[in-house]
Amino acid sequence: MDFKTLLPILISAVAVIVAVWQALIAKLQLDQAKSTKTETEKLLQEVKEKVSKIESITDETRKDVREQISKLVDKQDENFKTLLTAPQQNSQNEMIAQLLPQLLANGETLKMLMDYSKK
Questions:
Q1: Across 22-36, 59-73, 82-96, which has the greatest mean pLDDT?
Q2: Contact between residue 63 and residue 70 where contact means Cβ atoms under 8 Å apart
Q3: What tens digit of pLDDT does each residue of 18-35 get?
Q4: Where do the domains of the chain lie?
Q5: For the chain, N or C: smaller number of CB within 10 Å?
Q6: How many CA atoms does the CB half-sphere of 7 hold within 13 Å?
Q7: Which residues have a Cβ under 8 Å from the Cβ of 5 and sit 6 or more positions away?
Q8: Is 106 left (phi over 0), alpha (psi -120 to 50) or beta?
């Protein structure tokens, strides 16, 4: 065989080797892409879980803050009502203090008030 006949065979052999080599490289790249995709999906799932946990914590925190604010507002409302009724109670106490000596002096009036309070 001469060189002219061998040259196309050698070129064909080199082409086959290059094609196999490219196929192997393509297979490695495909495997790497699949691996990267799997890792990315796993990371995205972890991110979703963490976001869900954070949202849950945030919702619970909002709820707790609302409850605390509601309790505080209720307590302030209670204190305000107490402050508003305090003058009335004081004036009632003063009135009772003024009437008590007269009621004690007059037993029938005291007895009448006691009977009236029982009804």
A1: 22-36
A2: no
A3: 999 999 999 999 999 999
A4: 3-87
A5: C
A6: 3
A7: none
A8: beta
